Amino acid sequence: MLHKLEQPAAARRPRLHVGLAQCASEIREAQKLRYRIFAEELGAKLNCREPGVDHDLYDPFCEHLVVRDEDGGRIVGTYRILPPQAARRVGGYYSENEFDLTRLQLLREGMVEIGRSCIDPDYRTGATIALLWSGLARYMAQGNYRHLIGCASIGMADGGHAAANLYRRLGEHMAPIEYRVFPRHPLPVEQLFNDQPAELPPLIKGYLRAGAWIGGEPAWDPDFNTADLLIMMPMARVDQRYARHFLERKAA
Q1: Helices (H), the chain
Q2: Are 155 and 204 in contact (CB under 8 A)?
Q3: CA-CA distance, 101 to 66, in Å (whole number)?
């Protein structure tokens, strides 16, 4: 009689599930993950009321999308989502701290902001990213929201040269002039540009492949030491291959 060999635990694919956080403890766990990634790994200067927990004034108004490892019983990826009605209650979008969004005024009724995207280092795979995006796609479809915006970051460990070089190469992805945003603290692109090759961060690359626009020039975020681009995704522009893939996907 042949016995089926048990697959080593380390070789098994984790059972991942994506959905909105359903309780305060899940939100808190997502905020702890954010702290570990942004403060401990990337060196961001977070103004935390509680040690080890990334929390700001926008969090209570947001919904928190999380990916949970069902076997490990822990949250391994997250996005926070600020829908338009909540943005009105809190006084605006987080992105407005970095950009003047005046030209997007007529889009606000159907405009959702995403941010604080992060994934545990052990789970940084295409499967985890795809799950987060599938959750976002379903959220947008269920709410009949028409535009998705958010800040996407490029690290500035090199002083900002890579960010300037990348921005100069993204002309074909720029939003129409009527939707352009303006950085409150512009990155000095002309001074930093040196025409050296630079790798576009996977998250931004994924957004652009799906049909997103770059909203305008990059802003400098001194707390996170990043150059931030305003990403704008009109849902009508989303590549249909991406839409089908994300809306049909539920778990990895």
Answers
A1: 24-35, 84-90, 126-143, 161-168, 189-192, 202-210, 240-248
A2: no
A3: 28
CB 132 within 8 A of CB 67: yes
CATH of the domain at 204: 3.40.630.30
Triad 244, 204, 185: Cα angle to 5°: 140
Q: What is the pLDDT of residues 202-252, one digit of tens each?
A: 889 889 988 899 999 999 999 888 999 999 999 998 866 655 555 554 444
**Alpha-carbon torsion 120, 123, 124, 129, what sign?**
negative
Q: What is the pLDDT of residue 3?
A: 40
Q: How many CB atoms lie within 10 A of CB 79?
A: 24
Q: How many domains does the chain have?
A: 1
- Tell me, yes or no, whether 175 lies in a domain: yes
Residue 127 is assigned to a structural domain of this protein = yes
| Cα distance between residue 159 and residue 226, in whole Å | 9
In a domain, 205, yes or no: yes
249: which 2 tokens? Answer: 């996907």
Domain that holds residue 212: 14-248
